[in-house]
Sequence to fold (199 residues):
Amino acid sequence: MRLFYSPASPFAAKTRMAAHHCDLPVEAVPTVTSDEPADLLAANPLGKIPVLVLDDGSTVYDSKVICDLFDRMSGNQLVPQSLDAWRFVKTFEALADGVGDALILTVYEVRYRPEDKRYTGWIDKQMNKADRGLAKLEEMLDQLPAEPTTAHFALAGLLGWMRFRMEGKIEAERPKLAAWLDAFPTVFPAFTELGPRQA
Ligand SMILES: N[C@@H](CCC(=O)N[C@@H](CS)C(=O)NCC(=O)O)C(=O)O
Fold:
């Protein structure tokens, strides 16, 4: 299996950590989405990473579906199967991903839009979504299962990315999440290698 990724992407890091946890062989293919390379667009018309290309050539996206596939391939090593635990983990994962989506839009607004065309009302709206989401994630943190799940990998991807894209924000505003991230490599040592890093 091949996985289109970039070192900074929180969503790609989530799927790479998940594959490692399940001991699934994945070849990581570095990809620059802003170049819109033909092989990426052929694999995912949205031009986003992560994308998984299976050995038979079929493609899988986005990060939630890739993680669900890994979960099925590994005999449910990523998501607990009791109804309540499944609901909690998948909702936590969706919230962490949603915070990432909102924050990435604020980054893209600055990166891709000329300064005189930027709209701070839009950035504020996305930032408010992210801030409400981070508060809720902090509230839910104690209920995470002890064993790593897709919720853990989504949160570690998000917070690891925030550490360099929004330096100081989690430490100043969400110290419980910051402490959780600091401790995560002791629970999952491969975070040091597979967590998001500034390209
Ligand atoms: N919901 C998607 C989000 C993926 C996403 O936004 N990826 C970013 C990189 S972190 C991307 O590919 N951006 C390029 C673009 O939007 O064109 C997922 O969970 O995989």
